[in-house]
Design a protein that fits this description.
six-stranded antiparallel beta sheet; alpha+beta; single chain; about 25% helix
Length: about 850
């Protein structure tokens, strides 16, 4: 890390950013212009996405890719490729429309018939039972897909089984298999003692909104995606693989059963289950020849739930293992065999990451073949002070689980080499600007996310209504330079954190199996109290116990996964545990691992239990629930702190690190001194943590004094709130300002000009009797990006309050011209006035503090 820090301080950094580069068939000039815009924003890679392109994998597509790769080679940039003609991954560029039936998606669907009272004779009309339960779209999106994108009828629907299940029953007499009567037109069922339900089971390919997508459980079906996309890129650009072409990106691959983006449903509430011939083979292997008779237990909640849980476990374990092997590992293996990497993410929302439908049933297995862990953080999933649960949104999941999933997989999966990725920033609307983007970036960085895919550079004519905001916008983006400075900040921190490894204190069981089998506490219930007490945690799947070689698991002296040593294991409360977890817990206790089961303790008390085992590293005085912490170890100790609250925090933080300590300012790219006190193998550090800003402590850095930034000082403050000449211009017209007017601060520009987006210039004269040794200009609040000029010299860019600028070197004796330029976001020129939420211009006060 010392070597990396020295590289950073000398202006070098590694690229960790590759934004989506949306192609729609634009001309060569536009493509080259946008590649330059990406490069000028301190980004050295793109991820090309057809959004959609009118000729994907056709002549125009390859012509456009030629231009992109030419620009990338000339600029020493990398190119990633989203691996399908349109989102989500699995469409295989339309190839599934005429693929063999056996390679298409399939579902196991059920319906029930209530049997008459015991002792009755029930006539079962088998011909009627042959008709599968129809798929009824939930919404307009599903209806459109069904009517316009699923015109093929699959003619191999099959009546799989007729199974009678007794309420509150158990094996073996609680289930009667009537499937031997399937070939008849009808038969009579003599209802035994008890309350019985007849389950009618079908296999069908005529369900779901996205039927013409690959079957993620089938190796041969997934191979179609490789043939239609990856192999064609290899044919055109094999010499660029591993050089300019970095790899492929899978975007939200899904199993596709159920309804589109239908979240929050456990397995027994789904209308149908993902299926395929390989799943069927696994069911027979795991459950025996009578496997069909056990399938109703996937849904039935009245039957003996211990036995039902076993069936659900075997089904989901088989399903997700097949997805990992036949989809994720196959695609990842192809990529690595061809010298490139494989990355992407699944749908994680509302804990869908361990469910089927719009996701892949298991976060770690779904990404098992990838070279980075990945998540999606677009929309309003994560937002300032958004750690609350609302209708249809679990804010606690997004704040305390989502990013930690990616960081955990990157840490414990040897294949990931510590790399985590977040698709970030998009689909919020034009109200999103660099101020919110800074919050989102810090949210990820302090949770050890170290690669980013900003969403997006869209080459379509501005304003593109497709999931804004977008960046650059053909010169219409007022904040593109400020965005570029943010990218530089993110690259610097990611370069630094990637040079070491995270130091966890606690493992939290990734309880996918428990969620499959029965009711389970959501992971945010145990993660929130850990995060709010600055306790580092990783989610670990049960696979670390059954696939020790895969995860480099060492249990000889406790719980160690891929070199991460956990002193405690927290288990969310649940009805059923994975068999391997139940088996290993006594052994872990013997080895001194503290086991905390949230079924036996309120989650809020978990930090106190960890205190009893001296498992707390970060101690804040005063305590604060909104401060997040990250510990990275190498030849230096790195601690990153972010205040996600609204109030400034001042106090002392006690850390288990020693040696000379300083602050690395990633925005200014320099070091700052900090007051410390060593005691008992720990160090107390006096800190001030401001909202929207980060603080990075480095221990044992021993850097040259030339890298240290000026220290804060006491001085004379000169208020500058009056006599400003304000003028405006749109971004595309910069620097041709107009509509000059004298104003005082704070300015009320948003109310005065409700439809304006662009640059706001404030200019005035300042009399300096004697040139000071130090001078700092401060703007208490503005919206959003701020640049200060003194006598024509730029003093830099800032994007969050307090906006402070060192200007002493630009002042002269006598009259000085001070100019402040504020870049708004793009909401007001794109949204009706009544729907606009953002402010514009300087909304706070301004002053200069002078010393000497």
């Amino acid at each position: 890390m010392k070597e990396v820090l020295n590289k950073l301080l000398n202006g070098e950094y590694d690229n960790h950013i590759f934004p989506f580069f949306w192609l729609h068939g634009e001309d060569e000039k536009t493509i080259r212009d946008y590649m330059k815009a990406v490069y000028d924003a301190n980004i050295r890679a793109v991820c090309v996405e057809s959004r959609p392109h009118p000729d994907f994998a056709g002549p125009k597509w390859w012509q456009d890719m030629d231009v992109i790769l030419d620009e990338a080679r000339n600029r020493n940039m990398k190119v990633w490729i989203l691996d399908d003609s349109h989102f989500p991954t699995g469409f295989a560029n339309g190839r599934m429309a005429d693929a063999p039936l056996e390679l298409c998606r399939q579902c196991l669907v059920y319906r029930t018939v209530q049997c008459p009272p015991s002792g009755s004779e029930m006539t079962v009309d088998v011909d009627e039972c042959r008709v599968s339960t129809p798929f009824v779209p939930y919404n307009d999106m599903e209806r459109y897909d069904v009517e316009n994108r699923n015109k093929r009828f699959y003619g191999d629907d099959k009546l799989l089984g007729l199974i009678a299940v007794r309420k509150n029953g158990s094996l073996p007499d609680g289930i009667i298999d009537l499937s031997a009567n399937i070939e008849k037109k009808s038969f009579v069922f003599h209802v035994p003692q008890g309350e019985w339900t007849l389950y009618v089971l079908h296999l069908t390919r005529n369900r779901g909104a996205r039927r013409q997508f690959i079957n993620m459980t089938s190796k041969e079906s997934c191979r179609i995606l490789l043939d239609e996309v990856h192999e064609k890129f290899w044919q055109h650009y094999s010499s660029d693989f591993g050089n300019t072409i970095a790899g492929f990106f899978s975007d939200e691959p899904e199993l596709g059963n159920g309804h589109l983006y239908d979240t929050g449903k456990p397995i027994w509430k789904l209308e149908d289950q993902a299926w395929g011939s390989d799943v069927q083979t696994e069911m027979k292997k795991r459950l025996g020849d009578n496997w069909v008779s056990l399938m109703p237990l996937i849904w039935d909640r009245s039957f003996d739930q211990t036995e039902a849980a076993k069936v659900r476990f075997e089904y989901m374990d088989a399903l997700t293992s097949l997805v990992e092997k036949n989809f994720s590992e196959q695609v990842g293996g192809w990529c690595r065999d061809h010298g490139v990497k494989y990355i992407g993410h699944i749908i994680e929302d509302e804990n869908q990451h361990y469910r089927t439908g719009s996701s892949l049933g298991h976060y770690f297995r779904g990404l098992g073949g990838q070279d980075m862990s990945g998540i999606d953080m677009i929309g309003t999933q994560v937002r300032p002070q958004g750690e609350i649960d609302e209708e249809r949104r679990s804010g606690r999941f997004y704040h305390f689980v989502l990013a930690s999933l990616a960081a955990s997989a990157a840490a414990i999966d040897p294949k990931k080499h510590g790399d985590s990725m977040c698709e970030i920033f998009g689909a919020v609307g034009w109200k999103e600007g660099v101020r919110l983007e800074k919050y989102l970036a810090d949210h990820c960085l302090v949770r050890n996310i170290n690669n980013f895919v900003p969403h997006a550079f869209s080459l379509r004519k501005y304003p593109d209504p497709d999931c804004p905001p977008h960046f650059y916008n053909h010169g219409n983006d007022p904040q593109i330079r400020h965005f570029g400075k943010l990218m530089l900040y993110m690259n610097r921190i990611a370069t630094l954190t990637k040079s070491g490894h995270s130091v966890p204190e606690t493992a939290v069981l990734y309880a996918a199996e428990s969620d499959w089998m029965g009711k389970c506490m959501p992971p945010e219930d145990v993660a929130e109290p850990l995060a709010r007490n600055q306790i580092a945690y990783d989610f670990i799947p049960a696979d670390v116990f059954t696939r020790k070689e895969r995860y480099n698991t060492d249990l000889s002296e406790g719980l160690c996964v891929n070199g991460r040593k956990y002193r405690s294991l927290v288990i969310p409360a649940c009805e059923h545990l994975a068999p391997c977890v139940e088996k290993i817990l006594p052994y872990l206790k013997e080895k001194g691992v503290q086991i905390i089961n949230a079924a036996n303790i309120s989650p809020e008390l978990i930090p106190d239990e960890l205190d009893k085992g001296s498992l707390r590293s970060v101690l804040l005085d005063p305590v604060n629930r909104d401060i997040r912490a990250l510990h990275i170890a190498s030849d230096m100790d790195l601690w990153m702190f972010v205040n996600e609250g609204t109030e400034l925090w001042e106090g002392v933080v006690s850390l288990p690190s020693s040696g000379e300590c300083c602050i690395y300012d990633a925005w200014e790219n320099g070091l700052r001194r900090v007051k410390t006190e060593a005691y008992d193998k720990r160090t107390k550090v006096c800190l001030t943590l401001k909202p929207l800003q980060s603080t990075i402590l480095l221990f044992c850095c021993n850097a040259s004094s030339s890298y240290f930034l000026p220290e804060s000082f006491e001085g004379t403050e000169i208020p500058l709130n009056n006599d400003w000449e304000r003028s405006i211009c749109r971004a595309i017209d910069y620097p041709n300002f107009k509509d000059g007017k004298t104003v005082s601060l704070p300015d009320c520009l948003a109310a005065e000009m409700p439809h304006f987006s662009g640059f706001v210039r404030y200019e005035r004269k300042v009399l300096i009797d004697k040139v000071p040794s130090r001078a700092v200009l401060s703007v208490s609040d503005a919206h959003e990006g701020v640049e200060v000029f003194v006598n024509g010299n730029s003093a830099g860019l800032q994007i969050v309050p307090d906006y402070c600028f060192e200007i002493g070197g630009y002042l002269k004796q006598g009259l000085n011209t001070v100019r402040i330029e504020v870049a708004t976001n793009s909401e007001r020129e794109n949204m009706p006035e009544e729907r606009c939420e953002t402010l514009s211009g300087i909304t706070g006060s301004c002053s200069i503090k002078i010393k000497g």
